[in-house]
């Protein structure tokens, strides 16, 4: 007897087959089904709407170009999250390197634009009255170590289970639990002064 998961797997296999055959309609369906997940995940990590939009496009282009290499050992969604988080972290590392280079060259009087930290942004689904609080939270998330950041975003923003995150990060469930525990500890240290200030203005 087929379960819902079996049916979903069958539909996903059919979509993958259509993608491998180069069907544009299948690619459009893939984008429609997953563009919000990809964009929101990228946005939560890079914290810049325009960069997240560009990154989402890059993710789907890579999927289109490399779908033939996809082995159906994991779900298509898992593969998409893996590509998205890998690209987002690479983008952050590149941004930090550019920022360090800008500061270094400015010491020697070389005319070079200084790259600043991303401005406050508003994540989709955040109520207006919560935007200040969420901006503070996302700035704190941005300071987490890469692995902690990915685990936290996937679990608390994208609502992925520990097992699903382990598949995305190609690790174990216990490793994910440890990352989430450390992420919460680090965020608590960063955010405690903010909440104390709001409680005692």
Question: Outline of this structure?
Answer:
The protein is an all-alpha fold and 201 residues long. It has eight helices and no strands. The N and C termini lie far apart (61 Å).
What key attributes describe this structure?
mainly alpha, 2 domains, sigma factor, disordered N terminus, 201 residues, Rna Polymerase Sigma Factor, Chain: A, Arc Repressor Mutant, subunit A
What does this structure look like?
This protein is an all-alpha fold and 201 residues long. The protein contains eight helices and no strands. It folds into two domains: 1-119, Orthogonal Bundle (Rna Polymerase Sigma Factor, Chain: A), CATH 1.10.1740.10; 124-201, Winged helix-like DNA-binding domain superfamily/Winged helix DNA-binding domain (Arc Repressor Mutant, subunit A, Orthogonal Bundle). Helix 2 (24-46) crosses helix 6 (146-157). The termini are far apart.
């Amino acid at each position: 007897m087929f379960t819902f998961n079996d049916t979903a797997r069958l539909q996903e296999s059919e979509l993958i087959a259509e993608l491998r055959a180069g069907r544009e309609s299948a690619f459009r369906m893939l984008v429609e089904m997953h563009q919000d997940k990809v964009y929101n995940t990228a946005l939560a990590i890079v914290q810049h709407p325009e960069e997240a939009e560009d990154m989402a496009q890059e993710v789907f282009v890579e999927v289109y170009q490399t779908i033939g290499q996809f082995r159906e050992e994991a779900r298509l969604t898992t593969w998409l999250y893996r590509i998205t988080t890998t690209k987002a972290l690479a983008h952050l590392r590149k941004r930090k390197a550019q920022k360090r280079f800008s500061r270094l060259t400015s010491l020697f009087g070389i005319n070079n634009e200084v790259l600043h930290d991303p401005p406050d942004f508003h994540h989709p689904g955040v109520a207006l009255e919560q935007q200040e609080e969420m901006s503070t939270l996302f700035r704190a998330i941005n300071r987490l170590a890469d692995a902690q950041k990915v685990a936290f975003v996937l679990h608390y923003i994208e609502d992925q289970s520990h097992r699903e995150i382990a598949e995305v990060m190609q690790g174990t469930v216990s490793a994910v639990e440890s990352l989430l525990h450390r992420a919460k500890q680090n965020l608590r240290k960063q955010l405690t002064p903010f909440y104390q200030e709001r409680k005692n203005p």
